[in-house]
Structures are given as C-alpha cells and as structure tokens.
Specification:
binds adenosine monophosphate, 6-stranded antiparallel sheet, Rossmann fold, alpha/beta
C-alpha cells in the first residue's frame, strides 16, 4: 500500500488523538508530575516482609483472586490446536515445574536456559523457574550450536529446557563443552541421549509449592545481548524488574484486565519475556500465543477471530504486512483492535501512516533495549503521534541527549534537534544490575549517574525523541541484535578465510542484513563455490538467523595502525557515505 508524500513531509505530520477514547495514561503531563516508583510498586501485591517474585505477581496472585478462571494463556498451535489455560491452571502448572526443579536439585540462583518456540511448556518453564527462584535465560531457537554453547558457558547453565529436535540438531554436539549443564529437559515423553522427558516429570510433580521468600534484588533473568567486540554480554535483571514490566504494560501498552493481548516477539529475545510473558500476565490479560511464524493472512485472521484488543509487534513484521498489500486485509473486521504498538528497530514514518490508513489508527512506536528491561520511551494511546518518532519518556524515566566530552564525561544537550547519545538517568526497577562476570564492561555504561544507551538520537521541542542510529557496530536484522565479533570469529574458522569483517547493510524489509567481507588465505580463489562453502559453514555453526546473508571478497581489509579492522569504513564505502577520519588508517584494500 503506497503512502503519499516524501519522508520529510511524513515526518512533519502529527496525528492528534481524540479525547473521547479513555486510556490508562490519560494526561501525560499530569501523570509525569505525580508518578512515583513507590506507587508503581503498590500496584503489585508483593510478598510478606517486602519480598517480590515475578511469577507470584504474574500468575499466583491472580490464581487466588477474581481472575482465577480468566484465560491467562490462549495458545494457538501450528496444527490448529487451541488451548485456553486459566490463571488457576497456569499456577498449578508452574508450581509443578518448580517442584520438578527442586527434585533435580536446582537451587535458587541456578541458571535455567529455555530454548523453545512458542509452546505452552516455554511459559510454564520460565514462570516455574522464576517461582523457584532459579534464574531464567532465554535462547533464540534459531541460534546454531556456537551461540548456544557460548551463552551456556558464560551463564553456567545448569538446566536446559528444549525440544528433542533442537537438542538433536544443535545441542548434542556441544554438550561436551558445557560441563555445568547437568540436566536437559525435553518436551514430550521420550527421554534418551542425555535428555530427560519433561512431561512425565510434570505429571508426577505436586501442584503445591509455596512462593519462597524472594528478595526484590534476587537475580531473576539473564538476557544475552551483543556489543561491537567480545563475547555476548549477560544482562542481569532482578525480581524488582516486575514493577517496571507491569507499569509499562499499563501505561505504554494500555493493558486492561479482560483484554486479549498479542505480542508477536520471539520468546528467545527480551521483548518475548518482558512483554510476551510477564507484563501481560501481571496486568491480568489474556495473553495470546500464536505458535506459527509470520503469515499475513493468518495474522489478520487471528486478530479478527480472537478479538485482539492490544497488539505489540515489530517493524519488520509491519513492513511484511505492507508488502502483502490491502488485499490480505480485506474482509477482516478488526474493529475490536484498540491499540497497536511496535518495538525493536526504527519504525519508518510510512509504516506508522500505513497503520492509520489500513487499521484506522497508527502504530505506536516505542523504544527500549535488553539492558533497560522494559519500555523507556513510547507513543501513548492518549498522545499525538509524530510518525518517525519513538515518543516521549515513560513517567518515572528521565531521558536526555548527551555529548561526550574529551575528559570522558558527558554534557546534557538542552537545545532541541541536536544529535547525541540517548542517555537515561539511572534508578528504575528493570535496569540491568550488571553484565554477568564483566564488571568493567558494565561500569563503562555509566557516566555521572546516567546510563549510556549506545543509541544516537535527537529530542524535539515537544520532548519527542527521534532515533538516529547506533553509536557502535552492532547490527539489527529483523529486530534481532547481532554482534559482528561473534560472526567474524566463526568466519575465520573456515580454512580459506584469513580475515573477516561484518557489517549491517540496509534492507527494505529486515531493516539490516548481515554482510561479511572476507580476505582469503593465499592459494584460495574467490569464486562462487567458495562463497557457498563459507556461507554454509557460518549457517551451520551460527544458525540461519545470525549467519551472514551476503559475502564479499576483498584482497585486504582496511585496518588501523593497531591492527583493528575498520568496519565503519567498510560500511561507509558500501553505502557510498563520507569515509570520515582516516588518520588512523594503516593498510587498505585499495
Ligand atoms: P535489544 O537489546 O536487542 O532489544 O536491542 C535494543 C536496540 O534496538 C536499541 O538500542 C536500538 O538500537 C534498537 N531499537 C529498539 N527499539 C527501537 C525503536 N523503537 N526505534 C529504533 N531503534 C530501536
């Protein structure tokens, strides 16, 4: 569906809201003035003595109250299966899982990795682990053996919950590298090959499990994310994070009890946990889970048939819906849809307006990242939307634009529309508490009480934030953050590859694609067979979601005098952009 107007014209549009539609936030300025984290905490029950447990807030408390028979999870399976699991039933299931862990000798603080598609066992495993005070670490099911092994090693995974098929294809071969991994629980009834079937364990387990005393600062979640260099970083989140999950679900996603909510994020990434599991349940809604992958027709059918009230999706999916055209949407009654939001990558203004044309309302972009644990900047149901802007900070969050000073400090820029790093004043509940085992890397994220996000942005005169780009070299492809170093490390293991550099190149649908430049060892010819061989090697080790889609051969890669490959220069040349400061350039391809 074409949207009229140039990008610049579209960016100057302002979509005003009708005051007649009530929403949780109401008047932004008013809430901003009165908001306190203490009050946000009071929206939850807590545990005796000031404790707080995510699973208790998400499931157990509802199972004991008026929402006990409300559907907590509405699961739509790939083969047309349909399961409605009430809060009461889900509470029983997660207590059983907690007992399974206890039976295996899993102690509070032990790490449980979960690598599954959108199946009911995933939700039970995540929430059951949190109830038992084990630390949950989600793994993306499209990861290959290498990213899985790296994360299990860093996180010292004791338990892995996965499917027999994922285990066979990707985990069995790296099992010897992860000696801490004591138990692999596989969905279904078949044990074997070093795995234990989960279903019989669940059936044999008691559904009685008292929520243990949980300190709000107890580690709850370990989310891996990537930087420009080095191994993936395990961002630590604690049970206190649920205060932010809950209140952002309430204000930024406008969740209300009784709503049907659909978050399309993959459960292997942070959105799939914070908003695919925790926030909807703490807010007492029916959390719709569609197991199948993207399909425009199926998505529209699901929105209509399940009477979805609030829909949280991502730019890549929205662009794929746009590609599918008006025809796919025709005949569907989506009048029930009250609010649509998007996250994870830049949402182009055309997509926001397409939402307005196609659904009668814009997509509401919001911004956050693994480290922030929850939504930080958002377009709200009650506030005018400026297409292309990420919106305004959540009440309770102070966001600003900062310039870096030569002495290592930062200066907050007050003037509007000046580009700088997006920084957040520290102190919200879902802020990461560290990168596991990497104190120095963690400390580098903070200057003078501000958290440095690594994103470049601008703030306009109305306080709306506009995304400009990343300050580092990480790549966002289909909403997934990829660290170039992890990909390069695997490429240079190929016998023909001497050096590799990986960048993101723009793609109209996926946002960016992973592209590798490789220099070959003497005696190897850059031909199609070798390209295929290198791509195959990367795909097999990293998994299709992380491996490069494109490979270019170069005689040499540009390097600094200290021998660092200049990815930025490769990117500038690839995109025909100014090459910038070349004073440190030592060797070059030219
Ligand atoms: P992750 O930690 O994988 O969730 O990735 C976080 C990063 O995704 C951010 O630092 C941004 O670079 C990008 N991102 C997330 N939301 C948005 C958004 N609404 N607009 C632009 N970029 C976004």
């Amino acid at each position: 569906m074409a949207v009229a107007g140039t990008s610049a014209e579209i960016r100057s549009v302002r979509l005003e809201k009708s005051r007649e539609r009530p929403c949780n936030l109401g008047d932004y300025e008013e809430v901003l003035a009165t908001f306190s984290w203490a009050e946000a905490r009071a929206m939850l029950d807590g545990l005796p003595g000031g404790g707080l447990n995510i699973a208790h807030e998400a499931v157990i408390r509802h199972s004991l109250g008026e929402r006990a028979e409300t559907t907590a999870l509405l699961w739509l399976g790939k083969r047309g299966e349909r399961r409605a699991i009430s809060y009461r039933e889900l509470a029983d299931e997660i207590r059983r899982f907690a007992n399974v862990l206890r039976g295996l000798g899993v102690e509070p603080g032990d790490r449980v990795f979960v690598m599954l598609g959108r199946v009911p066992e995933l939700y039970v495993a995540v929430l059951g682990s949190l109830l038992a005070k084990a630390v949950v670490s989600p793994l993306f099911s499209a990861f290959g053996p290498e990213p899985i092994a790296t994360r299990l090693k860093i996180g010292r995974g004791k338990v892995l919950v996965t499917s027999p098929e994922i285990y066979r294809r990707k985990v069995a071969q790296i099992r010897g590298e992860v000696p801490d991994l004591a138990h692999v629980l596989v969905t279904g009834r078949e044990s074997g090959d070093g795995t234990t079937a989960l279903q019989p364990l669940l059936e044999a387990a008691s559904d009685q499990f008292e929520t243990p005393p949980t300190d709000p600062e107890d580690m709850a979640l370990l989310h891996f994310t990537s930087g420009t260099t080095g191994t993936p970083k395990g961002a630590i989140h604690v049970h206190e994070a649920v205060v932010a999950h809950n209140v952002t679900g309430f204000y930024a996603l406008d969740l209300r009890p009784g709503d049907v909510f659909w978050c399309t994020a993959d459960p292997g990434w942070v959105t799939g946990t914070s908003y695919g599991i925790i926030a909807p349940l703490t807010n007492g809604v029916t959390n719709l889970v569609l197991e199948a992958e993207f399909d425009a027709g199926l998505w529209y059918e699901t929105l209509e048939a399940e009477k979805v009230d609030v829909w949280y999706t991502a730019p890549t999916a929205i662009r794929m819906l746009m590609k599918a055209g008006k025809e796919a949407l025709q005949g569907h009654d989506l009048s029930r849809l009250r609010f649509m939001a998007s996250v994870g990558e830049p949402l182009n203004p055309e997509a926001v307006l397409w939402g307005q044309e196609a659904f009668g309302q814009p997509f509401h972009d919001n911004w956050w990242q693994t480290e922030t644990g929850g939504i930080m900047v958002a377009n709200y149901a009650s506030m005018a939307v400026k297409p292309g802007s990420m919106g305004r900070p959540l009440p309770g969050i102070e966001a600003a634009i900062a310039k870096h000073l030569p002495d290592g400090g930062i200066e907050i820029v007050e003037a509007p529309m000046v580009e700088g790093e997006l920084v957040l004043k520290t102190g919200w509940p879902s802020m990461m508490r560290g990168y596991l085992g990497e104190e120095a890397r963690y400390r580098k994220c903070f200057v003078g009480g501000w958290y440095l996000t690594g994103d470049l942005a601008k703030r306009d005169e109305d306080g709306y934030f506009w995304f400009v780009g990343r300050a580092d070299d990480v790549i966002k492809t289909s909403g997934h953050l990829i660290g170039p170093f992890e990909v390069e490390s695997i490429l240079i293991e190929h016998p023909a590859v001497a050096e590799a550099a990986v960048i993101g190149v723009p793609d109209p649908t996926a946002g960016e694609l992973v592209k590798a430049f490789v220099a070959l060892k003497p005696g190897h010819e850059p031909d199609e067979a070798l390209r295929r061989s290198i791509l195959g090697h990367a795909r097999q080790r990293l998994g299709a979601a992380v491996a490069p889609k494109l490979i270019d051969f170069k005689a040499n890669l540009p390097k600094t005098r200290s021998g660092k490959i200049m990815r930025r220069l490769l990117k500038a040349r690839e995109l025909g952009l100014p090459e910038g400061d070349l004073s440190t350039l030592e060797s070059d391809e030219k």
